[in-house]
Design brief:
Elements lengths: L7 H13 L4 E4 L4 H9 L5 E3 L1 H7 L10 H12 L6 E4 L7 H13 L4 E5 L18 H14 L6 E6 L1 H5 L1 H13 L4 E4 L5 H10 L5 E3 L11 H6 L4 E4 L2 H20 L12 H7 L2 H11 L9
Parallel strand pairs: 1-8, 2-3, 3-4, 4-5, 5-6, 7-8
Helix pairs in contact: 4-5, 5-6
Length: 301
């Protein structure tokens, strides 16, 4: 009730344990707090918070228009309700080295378990679009070093994302990733890999774990967890999947209401009131009220 019962420090430690384990883990993207609660209740290992999904939910493209304050508030609202580790998209860190250090601390204070920084220039673009530009390796190393220096909880995971595959090639992207790991990155996010062999090459070249971004309509095929585990991937994220599911259903539902003048034909596909109340633990709030407000004024003046 009211939120997570597991302290943020324990969730960060759990994230570390998952990355150090031998099994591949799945972090679906949550577009809001109730989405994160459903992810936890269905048995996933963690929650991902996508910058692209957040931007889209604000009616904005994913080009760095959302602010640190907005993203921190969004991350706090989601991390507050789940006992799972929450892993958030920090774009390019919202500025230079000192800004990046502050970004880490803001996410720590918001209860997040980890974040990823990318090596794109500002303004950034979606990782699966063409025309991306990246900063120099030295500049990205500064970003990562600043993040590591700003970190106060050693278990807060700092991930480095490289978008260099598209413009510089696989070998150059791997060289960058090695430099990022040497600078202190705990996890590497190779964006827009073309096939399983590229994930495998990346994983084999590094001493830190890698993640796979299984976003729809992108450069990568939608591989199964079994396939990705075989290629050496440790973590899989599904950044915009829940947003696309929700928006697709909303659009179809509104079209039906517009055409038929009622939602009667689509009620069967909706979340029921009972399921909603179970998801948000409505009963616990009633029990809390009953325990607190069970006194009587009788006999008191």
């Amino acid at each position: 009730m009211l939120g997570a019962t597991t302290p943020a420090a324990q969730r960060r430690q759990r994230f570390r344990e998952l990355l150090a384990g031998s099994e591949i883990v799945q972090f679906p993207g949550a577009i809001n707090p109730i989405n994160a609660q459903i992810i936890e209740q269905l048995g996933f290992e963690g929650v991902y918070i996508s910058g692209g999904a957040f931007s889209a939910a604000q009616g904005l493209p994913d080009i760095g228009l959302t602010t640190l304050t907005e993203v921190v508030a969004h991350g706090r609202n989601i991390s507050r309700v789940t006992n799972l580790p929450t892993f958030i998209d920090a774009d390019t860190g919202w500025g230079e080295a000192m800004n990046v250090a502050r970004t880490v601390q803001e996410f720590e204070d918001a209860g997040l378990a980890g974040m990823h920084l990318e090596d794109q220039v500002n303004p950034k673009r979606c990782g699966h679009l063409d025309g991306k530009e990246v900063v120099s390796t030295a500049e990205m190393v500064k970003r990562i070093s600043a993040a590591v220096k700003g970190r106060r909880d050693e278990n807060f995971v700092i991930c480095a994302r490289t978008d260099a595959r598209a413009g510089e090639g696989l070998d150059a992207a791997i060289d960058r990733a090695k430099a990022y790991a040497d600078a202190g990155a705990d996890l590497i996010f190779p964006e827009a890999m073309r096939d399983l062999s590229e994930f495998e090459t990346f994983a084999s070249a590094l001493d830190v774990p890698i993640l796979a971004n299984m976003t729809e309509f992108g450069k990568s095929e939608l591989f199964t967890t079994e396939q990705l585990a075989g290629a050496g991937v440790r973590l899989v994220i599904y950044p915009v999947t829940t947003l696309r599911i929700a928006m697709g259903a909303i659009k179809r539902g509104l079209e039906t209401i517009r055409a038929e003048g009622t939602q009667e034909s689509i009620v069967e596909g909706m979340q029921t009131r009972a399921d909603l109340y179970e998801t948000i633990d409505y009963g616990a709030y009633n029990d809390f009220d009953a325990d607190i407000f069970n006194f009587s004024q009788e006999g008191h003046q």
